[in-house]
Amino acid sequence: MKTRATKPLLAPSQTRELLYSKRYLAADRAKVSVSEIRTWDRYLLREHRLLVPVDVQALYVPKGHPEPMVRLPMLVAGANGAVAATPEGAMPPLFDAGKPRPAGVHLHWAMPDALLRGRLTETSSSNRLGLPVLPDRWLVLRIALPKGGRSVITTGWVLEADRAVAVPLGSWTEGGSASAAATPAGSALAREALIGTAGGGLTWSGAYDAVLNRFALHDPLTDLAGLAPAGVDEDCASYTVCGWWSDPRLDPLDAARNNDSLDELLDRLRWHPLHEWGSEAGELARQYEEFQLKKALGLTTDDTWMSKRPAPVLAPNTPRAAPQAVSRAVAAKTSAAFTPADKTLLQVKAKGMNSIFSNDALLHVTANPWQLRASLLHGTVYGVPVTGAVLKDRRPAASQLQVALGQHDDDLVSSLAAHGATPDQLRATERLISAFTTQRINRLASADGVVELEEAEHAAGFASLPSGSAGNDRYLQRVQTGGVGGLNLGRDHLMKDVV
Questions:
Q1: Which of 42, 149, 250, 296 is most buried, by the most CB atoms less than 10 A from its CB?
Q2: In sequence order, what DSSP letters do the residues of 384-431 get, joined into one string?
Q3: Can you give the pTM of this predicted structure?
Q4: Residues 291 and 22: beta-carbon distance below 8 Å
């Protein structure tokens, strides 16, 4: 049997020149691929970040599942960017029967408590609670292992939360044509307006339908059959989510470089980072070497201390381009040749100096600070079904549910345990459970045992928080006449209030 020889795409001389060229060596050592170079974003921070965990949950809906669900869109989650006039108009009518959800995996992740915590102020601003800005860029990855395969299949989407659009990762660039062609699931918001009450209530970010394509994603799983024809291992996949701010100045840690120290800022956010496992100096040296390799390819990266990202090209009301025009634009951009930058690795930049010693220096060297200046929110959910029927529904029957109210766990347990009992029996059950959990059951029969138990229950209803160390200096005018020996005080006294 004769085989037909295939003609190589490149001549041997071209292959040799490609493998030994400076561009290939730089790309190999910098660990970047052609697809990554094509979608490089110079404004995306690639520095040391604080990793903040978020809770990610998934709902799997099989094909043809008849269970109805009521949609809660709130204000800014109308289809195709529609906006409701009032919060009541955005909600479904009372006793709405609902309808089944589309098949696939519905992801939803919660915002950290630090980004939903504020304080009521008497200002005319729309953000009267002073809530921090939520991340406006999210990356979602679906990780699945085909049956019989050795390498996983990763599929990704990028969510632009300010515009409520989801774009496939392979075709997404900041302000690109694929982002303009995506169908929004809600109205466009300014980056500064993306706060915890943007939808009209404090529970806005906790409703799936209200934050679709902002902090939630629907994966229809229609492409999984083509990627894994034999199915995926255990019929399950994993989803990883990470979020950041497209404008680094909106990151809550950005205030550590001008107003507050990093420790005070983390204490106010109630974020407690883990201790470093490695050498910070070694990590910085590795990052600097990798940065220089990518810089040789022209892949520069701005940080919070350099020039800011320009204004987005797309306006909120930009009309969507036709699919044919988008395809031609993406194809033309993909086929464009890449030419690496041939520049020196050391560039001297003019800096404004205020010191008389630095003005006389021949060379100014500016060192970037070492502390954390940015954060990255991340979360993962494992074992999400992606095919077949739901094997087991862990929800209890509605007839078996009970509701209990109490000030602490002992009240809740006793209310459920003594359901239907008299008030005296209920109180006796509360005392017995509280004595057991507080390790005072041996003192219950003593003369003052009941008093000690009630004091312990009263103390359990309160908690203390550190007041901090910030102080305010105030000058008060005090005039005192008379007194001992007719002493007359008319001076300003310094009074320090410790908050």
A1: 296
A2: EE-SS--S---PPPGGG------SSHHHHHHHHHTTT--HHHHHHHHH
A3: 0.65
A4: no
